[in-house]
UniProtKB/TrEMBL annotation:
Coiled-coil region(s): none
Pfam families for the chain: PGM_PMM_I (PF02878), PGM_PMM_II (PF02879), PGM_PMM_III (PF02880), PGM_PMM_IV (PF00408)
Gene Ontology MF annotations: magnesium ion binding; phosphoglucosamine mutase activity
Gene: glmM
Protein's organism: Staphylothermus marinus
Protein name, as recorded: Phosphoglucosamine mutase
Keywords recorded for this protein, A-Z: Isomerase, Magnesium, Metal-binding, Phosphoprotein
Domain Alpha-D-phosphohexomutase alpha/beta/alpha: residue ranges: 3-134, 153-254, 258-370
One BP term from GO: carbohydrate metabolic process
Enzyme Commission no: 5.4.2.10
Catalytic class of the enzyme: isomerase
Swiss-Prot/TrEMBL cofactor(s): Mg(2+)
Domain Alpha-D-phosphohexomutase C-terminal residue range list: 386-448
Entry-linked InterPro entries: A-D-PHexomutase_a/b/a-I, A-D-PHexomutase_a/b/a-I/II/III, A-D-PHexomutase_a/b/a-II, A-D-PHexomutase_a/b/a-III, A-D-PHexomutase_C, A-D-PHexomutase_C_sf, A-D-PHexomutase_CS, Alpha-D-phosphohexomutase_SF
Family: Belongs to the phosphohexose mutase family.
Length: 453
């Protein structure tokens, strides 16, 4: 059986993989899964194909007797928030998140606002493959779609309510927002303005072709944004991905903070904001260990999980003891708001933190442990990748290891992660070390092992 769902929904190139027929069948499978008369929100990001995919998915849903609430353009976290808060049975979001512009996809959200579990994905895949669609008898079909265009308003209000508006307003912040020409155009500048912040938006029109920049925040795609932050002498810049669940910050000196860096600072602030909260932070093995170092004195325990935001969100909800969760790509999860990544909420928290501590983001960045890092990938089949990992496990058997997704070795002044890619024939290698020399040595050692195999 073809595996439909990847790490985060069903994705593919528009009109090659994602055809109208495919989307309608997927809608039928999703509708059959949720069942007749279930209430489902359907929304999308700005991507090309979004319009026909949404309409095809709705066709499938209606055919299976679902009540469809169409919110159209909205960031993923806004739809997730409203799904849970307004008591819907689920949501279908047409998005390919950070992928290149020619991609689109479908994410299925459960009634708790989190992406459905892997088990439920499997059930939908089975319905799809075996074409066990629930085709409703003609006289039970719903003949209207409910327009539900209140999602962005409700979301903005919910985010703004969770921070101290007066405190932020009194600081007179000036920020640059880069929503990547997609749906956070509709929410993030509003959140900031409602908090009394002066906002300059770049890539601020809705553009399905992403001509402003690639939907993924990277050093290359943010090069103009960083320059604008410094030339406007802004307090910070924030850049989202295509569906607005990631927030990557740029400090007042124009430096990019990756998600594990900003998460250190945010987690420390949350300890202060919620002193009674459990001291547990959830993240994937691909995040830096500096979070442990930075928060050690506060007794914070870091729970390492395999790579994938859904697994982090589900683990946090299940255990119920998380201060926060995050991914190094800029996905930050604040459970008091919702368990999933939320770019707008992350910005609001960062503004409150800066207002409360009366510090510049660059000062906070400079306080973080300094590490040299390298991220690389080596083309290699899964069998060989597994062998490389076995050799490393053996070689570093006297060191602290996390064996959840490949192998992560944690030494005194370095850490590294070697894991097979989930989607491509690649070995992914991430190393961080206190000195360049140490970094080089570890990389050479891994490359030697690769050559030996
Ligand atoms: Mg995303």
């Amino acid at each position: 059986m073809n595996k439909l769902f990847g790490t985060d929904g069903v994705r593919g190139v528009v009109n090659e993989f994602f055809t109208p027929i495919f989307a309608a069948k997927l809608g039928q499978a999703i509708g059959s899964f949720f069942g007749e008369n279930s209430r489902i929100i359907v929304g999308r990001d700005v991507r090309v194909g979004g319009l026909f995919i949404k309409n095809a998915v709705i066709a499938g849903l209606l055919s299976s007797g679902v009540k469809v609430y169409d919110c159209d353009l909205a960031p993923t976290p806004a739809i997730q928030y409203v799904t849970r808060d307004d008591g819907f049975d689920g949501a279908v979001i047409i998005t390919a998140s950070h992928n290149p512009p020619q991609y689109n996809g479908v994410k299925v959200i459960d009634s708790d606002g989190i992406e459905i579990s892997r088990d439920k994905e499997r059930i939908i895949e089975e319905i799809f493959t075996e074409e066990r669609f629930n085709r409703i008898q003609w006289n039970r079909l719903h003949e209207s779609i409910y327009e539900y265009r209140v999602v962005n308003d409700k979301y903005v209000k919910a985010v703004v309510e969770k921070v101290d508006k007066e405190l932020i307003k009194n600081r007179g912040f000036k920020i640059v927002v880069d929503p990547a020409n997609s749906v956070s155009v509709l929410t993030t500048p509003r959140i900031a303005r409602e908090l009394g912040v002066k906002v300059y938006t770049i890539n601020g029109d809705l553009d399905p072709y992403f001509s402003g920049r690639e939907p993924e925040p990277t050093v290359e795609s943010l090069s103009k944004t960083t320059t604008i932050v410094t030339s406007l002498k802004a307090d910070l810049g924030v850049a989202h991905d295509g569906d607005g669940d990631r927030a990557i910050f740029i400090d007042d000196k124009g430096r990019i903070l990756w998600g594990d860096r900003s998460a250190c600072i945010l987690a420390k602030y949350l300890l202060e904001k919620h002193p009674d909260s459990p001291r547990r932070v959830y993240t994937a093995v691909s995040s830096s260990t500096i979070i442990e170092e930075y928060l050690r004195e506060y007794g914070v325990e870091v729970v390492w999980l395999k790579v994938g935001s859904v697994d982090i969100a589900r683990a946090m909800k299940e255990k119920g003891d998380a201060l926060c969760g995050f991914e190094e790509n800029g996905g930050f999860m604040y459970p008091k708001h919702q368990f999933v990544r939320d770019g707008g909420m992350t910005l609001a928290l960062m503004l409150e933190l800066l207002a409360s501590w009366r510090k510049k983001l660059s000062e906070l960045y400079d306080d973080l442990p300094r590490m040299f890092s390298v991220k690389t990938k080596i083309p290699m089949g899964r069998d060989k990748a597994v062998k490389v990992i076995e050799v490393l496990r053996e070689k570093y058997c006297n060191y602290r290891q996390v064996n959840i997704d490949g192998v992560k070795i944690i030494g005194d002044d370095y850490w590294f992660l070697v894991r097979p890619s989930g989607t491509e024939p690649l070995l992914r290698v991430m190393i961080e070390a206190r000195s360049e020399d140490r970094l080089r040595k570890i990389l050479d050692e891994i490359l030697d092992i690769v050559r030996g195999i």
